[in-house]
Amino acid sequence: MPLRYVAGLKLPAEGAISAIAFSHTGNFVACATLLGKVMVWDTHTGTQLYVVRAKSPVLCLAWSTFTAHNVLCGLENGTVASISFDDDALSISGFAAHESILECIALTSDDTKFATAGQEEVRVWNSRGVWHRVSELGPPPSNGQTARSLICVTSVQWLSRMREADCLLVSYMHHGVIMWDVDSQTVLRAMPISTSIGAASLSPDQQHLAISNLCTGFDLYRIATNAPFATLPHKMGPNYATPVLFVHNGRAVLGGNASGEVSLWDVETGRRLHLLTHAGQSPFPSAAFDCFRDRFLLATGAVGSLGESYVQLWHTEEIREKPFMGYDKRKAEFLQGTENTYYEIGTRPTLCRYVSECDLVTVIE
Q: Chain-wide mean pLDDT for the chain?
């Protein structure tokens, strides 16, 4: 059955949004802001469960993969904060992880370690029992073009399937992508990417990497060969690090920009499947699958026309198809260039559009 995304709950935030993340079950969504606040909502009801105020802007979030009631936060002053909650209590703990800004955080799939990064620093910590540092990575390799460039980490992600040793994939704004052996602190592989990298996302099967470049949009690479296989044009802001995210188990890519547009593309064809529009800026997307309601969820952070910040939740609903008599190639090509594209999730993409009479047109290729 074809599905489409529709706007759902609108959750008011306090301050400019810096990060959004779903719990692994899809039951909760957390939002971090530059006012130092972390807000947690129930995605089913929109009820705000907790608000935590830090002394520094909160820049990144990572939920535990084993419990839906714990989220790690990275602060601008270099602190890592752990927020745990249940029906009756809220507990917060933390420590100073970096001497300067902390912009990236990522947990291993078994929750035993997590990586933090800010500017040129990349550190790995043991998350079981007493927190302690187990590794610190050195600077990335450089060449003649990058030797004088500022070292700036833009993402950290774990490559659990590459080899038995812990492997961390780190993207740098000017130094490409490096795969590090965390234990030996050595470079396993390097992906020389010439564009400036604002953000990166690893597919769930760890075969593909989506790069948000600062000029033209998003580029998709194969991890095994370092080769690009698709470019997704997107309107970018000047020198703006636009987030990018693999969704739908790696079959689609989600990306936003500062003009209020969040797009969903098919990885196989590179075609834009859906455009989610906002009346303002919407640079921060996140996604999850609601395990209990059997539906896909998206969240986008936005700033409205009056300067108010909010988190917009999107959920899937079935499209009631009407029969389409005949195939008009010119009409189909025209429809393929319009904005309201919908996607049959979980199967091979089927192109569906709304036309002016609000009738549904299905184009079978």
A: 80
Q: Would the pLDDT of 162 be above 60?
A: no
Compute CA distances 60 → 73, 133, 296, whole Å.
6, 19, 23
With beta carbons less than 8 A apart as the criterion, state whether 121 and 100 touch: yes
Asked whether residue 204 falls in the same domain as residue 96, the answer is yes
| E strand intervals along 36-184 | 37-42, 48-53, 58-63, 70-75, 79-85, 90-96, 104-107, 113-118, 121-126, 132-137, 153-158, 167-172, 177-181
Quick check: 54 and 77 in contact, CB under 8 A? no
- In whole angstroms, give the CA distance from residue 235 to residue 251: 22
Q: Which domain holds residue 344?
A: 322-365
- What's the CA angle centered on 118, arms 114 and 120, to 5 degrees? 110
8 A C-beta contact, residue 248 and residue 235: no
**Is residue 204 domain-shared with residue 139, that is, in the same domain?**
yes
Residue 298, strand partner residues: 287, 314
Picking from 261, 218, 252, 264, the residue whose alpha carbon sits closest to that of residue 5 is 264
Q: Measured between alpha carbons, how far is 80 from 58 in angstroms, rounded to an integer?
A: 10
Confidence of residue 342 (pLDDT cuts 50, 70, 90): very low
How do residues 194-212 score in pLDDT, each as one tens digit? 888 989 999 999 999 999 8
> What is the rounded distance in angstroms from the CA atom of residue 51 to the CA atom of residue 180?
36
Say what the pLDDT of residue 28 is: 93
The answer to whether residues 316 and 356 belong to one domain is no
Of 285, 194, 195, the residue nearest 244 (C-alpha): 285
Is a pLDDT exceeding 80 seen at residue 351? no
pLDDT at 338: 38
